[in-house]
């Protein structure tokens, strides 16, 4: 029986684990390998790992670090950041990574996504849509390069682009709610989910277990990802890697 997936999301910068707020003000959290070990112990469903600077700075993925993390990780692992070609994607999957995540490629070189899908299989290719609500029209605009570059393309168009290219999963991420811990944008998730037949994972805004449950209760079998929720503890945001135990997870599904 399929169940919702509860997915910690780790952000990398210069080889370290960081956490951002609205895609800005990265705060150093610690060693990503240590975080992975803790999530292993807590039996996380999946893990998402994203290098937030690689594409913006035109850098190659950090293959050595990805390989180390993949060797340590005992759960399905998805990796994004700086992946621009089939060769890069194939190399990363060769480390034991389950899925690669692409974003700016949707605008800069979309045919490369189809090339990855045709060779690796659609189940191995995730398109991440980082979106920000515009001030006046209140539409969701797709932004790339860690949110710093506006594309002039909006939600419906980029969903259609990603699915037509063969993406096997969509990761929808609210820039406005990143690190805010005030709850998910349920309207955004609904707008995306009703247009898709492929799996969707929602990211951005989780601050409590109740926030996870609100998404699962409304949308059913869905990926529910979070960063701050699984990294911080308390109002002062002390760093403490955490993840719901089996009992809490069972309650989320009810």
TrEMBL record:
Enzyme class per UniProt: lyase
Lineage: superkingdom: Bacteria
Gene3D superfamilies named among the record's database cross-references: Aldolase class I
UniProt cross-references to InterPro entries, sorted A to Z: Aldolase_TIM (IPR013785), His_biosynth (IPR006062), HisF (IPR004651), IGPS_HisA/HisF (IPR050064), RibuloseP-bd_barrel (IPR011060)
EC annotation from Swiss-Prot or TrEMBL: 4.3.2.10
Coiled-coil annotated spans: none
Keywords per UniProt: Amino-acid biosynthesis, Histidine biosynthesis, Lyase
Family matches, as SUPFAM superfamilies: Ribulose-phoshate binding barrel
Pathway info: Amino-acid biosynthesis; L-histidine biosynthesis; L-histidine from 5-phospho-alpha-D-ribose 1-diphosphate: step 5/9
Keyword Metal-binding: no
Amino-acid biosynthesis as UniProt keyword: yes
CDD domains: HisF (cd04731)
Matches recorded under Pfam families: His_biosynth
Catalytic activity, as annotated: 5-[(5-phospho-1-deoxy-D-ribulos-1-ylimino)methylamino]-1-(5-phospho-beta-D-ribosyl)imidazole-4-carboxamide + L-glutamine = D-erythro-1-(imidazol-4-yl)glycerol 3-phosphate + 5-amino-1-(5-phospho-beta-D-ribosyl)imidazole-4-carboxamide + L-glutamate + H(+)
Family affiliation: Belongs to the HisA/HisF family.
Classification via NCBIfam families: AglZ_HisF2_fam
Role: IGPS catalyzes the conversion of PRFAR and glutamine to IGP, AICAR and glutamate. The HisF subunit catalyzes the cyclization activity that produces IGP and AICAR from PRFAR using the ammonia provided by the HisH subunit.
Subunit field text: Heterodimer of HisH and HisF.
Protein name: imidazole glycerol-phosphate synthase
